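Hi R.,

Here's the chain you asked about this morning:
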Amino acid sequence: MTTVLLVRHGLTATTGHVLTGWMPGIPLDDRGRAQAAALAARLAPLRLDAIVSSPLERCLQTAAAIADGRDGQQVITDDRVGECRYGDWTGRPLKKLATERLWRVVQAHPSAVTFPGPDGESMPDMQHRAVAAVRDWNARLGQHATYLICSHGDVIKAIVADSLGLHLDQCQRIQADPCSLTVIRYTPLRPFLVRMNDKGGEVDDLMPRAGRQGADGAASVRDSDAAIGGGSGGAAVKADGPRGQGGYGGAGSPPMSGGIPGGRPPGSHSPLGNEELDRGRKDALNGAAAVPASAAPSNPAAPSAPSVSSARQQSADTRG
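And here is the predicted structure, written out as tokens:
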């Protein structure tokens, strides 16, 4: 069985209020560097057969912190685990994007979404390349390998959905906070999701937050929105970021941390507190046509193959 550790990059100054996508020059801020260092310390006892990273600076810095002190272990870049290409949405405030018609499609039917502009990518294509990268690295490194991929929120959510056999439309039920750890173990029969959105056992993101009710006292509609681009994981959003806008990256993002708390249980010898870890998506959308879905779910017959199945998911019909 091959074990892959999926790590989202640490916090940046724009995390949670700007959809940065492939914008260059977005490094970790002080909080993100501290997160990366803390995660590196947690992972230090665990041997990693490879450290693979998105080529974007925030991921490279996070991965480098993990590689530091590992006898010169190098970080390998792979564009296939890079951020989704958001096209004309890149660099825009999430607060403004949330008012566009396409936003609701991203939330409810991501398999039907192609981001606008010549550089916009479909979410199924993003999932396809990311899952293909994982399968490829699994085959390269072998069935006994444990390795790490540092990537982005939407990418990690798409990989997790595939591992669970979920349609891409269900990926918005998954959360990947900054510098969180998600672990998938790939076996000959099926993948096992061992951990998800593990941040070391903190409970800050579970605390009640103000500013998330409508005028009538009811929960805000945006409480149901997923954090596009990953969100800030409950961390305070800097500068003019939207505050209390639960569900699209603000400080009030819905708490969905599902990780196993950090720390070692009695008798455990795993540095991650889990002994098993050591052993083992043509509708018109805003005037633009959606690209047919091309993501492939996991092939349970051959989960360790170097490429994903050519079977394509059907696009969700968003007309009715």
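One quick note: Residues 123-141 form the longest helix (19 residues).

Cheers,
M.
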